[in-house]
Amino acid sequence: MRPRPGWMVGLAGFVPAFAAAVAVVLGDLAGAPGWHLVADLVGGVVACAGVWLCRRWPVAAGLVVIAVSVPAASASVAAGIAALLAALYRRPRVAIMMGAAGVVATLVRFAVRPPGLAPYPVWALVGVLFGAAVTAWGMLARTRRELLLSLAERARRAEAEQRLRAEEARRAERLGIAREMHDVLAHRLSLLAVHAGALEFNPDATAGEVAETAGVIRFSARLALEELRAVISVLRDPGSSSDAGAPMDQGMDLGALVEESRRAGMRVELRDHGVRLSEAPDVVGRAAYRIVQEGLTNARKHAPGQPVTVVVGGAGEGELVVEVRNPLPGGPAALTGDGRGAEPVGSGALGESGARPGPAGSGATADSGVGPGSAEAGPAGTGLAGLSGSEAETRPAGLSGSGGGTGLVGLAERATLAGGRLECGETADGEFRLAARLPWPR
Question: Which parts of the chain span the membrane according to its record (predicted)?
Fold first, then answer.
């Protein structure tokens, strides 16, 4: 509800005030002397001009109009309109004061020049009731107008908040779609690239080896298409969540996922300590599965030829710990030219008891989130540990490949949505470590 322009309000008050002034001069004062008529008419014109100004200066102009109404009978209606405008545009205390001033002016005018037809007390009562009615009417109209303005403003804010919520929901949906598409396709396409590269760099392969590799490529491409189709079907279904995940996660079977990477030539060691992700809550199991999948994909892209250790276990009551480790290329734990490397990966506490991930002495544990090449989780952290949501786009320094770090950001978002946290970074032993702690009430 928009307030009316000042000129409209002034015109609405001026017209009836001027009409009443003319009526009083031509009617009640018809038999008065000429100078009296002229003086009263001048007073009425002044009062009408004051009414026009009451929209901008309700108190000052209103008091002038009320004062003029005492000697000029033609200004009496203008005085009532001035009191009404003051009640419309000023606080109740000011409105009551203006109403009282109008009543006093009316009583004085009736005392000086009784209108006749009735005793003075009757006219005094009429003046008091009229002033009270005008003031109450103005205050009521002001309250109603403020209520309507408040409701309109509240509706505007609610609409703006609704738009913001809708935009935030669309943004979250886009992030979920991007996260799911990345998780589904990056793993499959990297496997395809590995097998296709094997064909390219092994021209002396036998027909049987070529056929076997081509079969693996065909199988991986078919799985990629099926997973992509599953994601698209989720996106097309309005009743489904874009983050619900594709139903082609092989039952969240880590053994099948690891075996797939082994067929691509990777050396992967799995220590699951009897944990079945299918028994975990869906959001926790899926997050753990995607973390292992992304860890294998990153190791395949950034550290080709290096062994990978996948550890899944519990860390106390109600918690699931997932860890993927691999030596950094050129680091102290990387394989040398004769195929020998540093101490085998997985000698940490979780590798033995399933209680705590991280190589012994590395300092890059999920408890502390601190280690060489990483930083304490938090807004001030500039390393890789303690990723939370989309706080930072994380890319391990010194790693090759064409990744943009969005996979790790997506994993951090998944861990946060599951109620856990993700850590990644270089350890003191020259390994890259990706670990997550996820809640698993049992």
Answer: 6-27, 34-53, 59-87, 94-112, 118-140
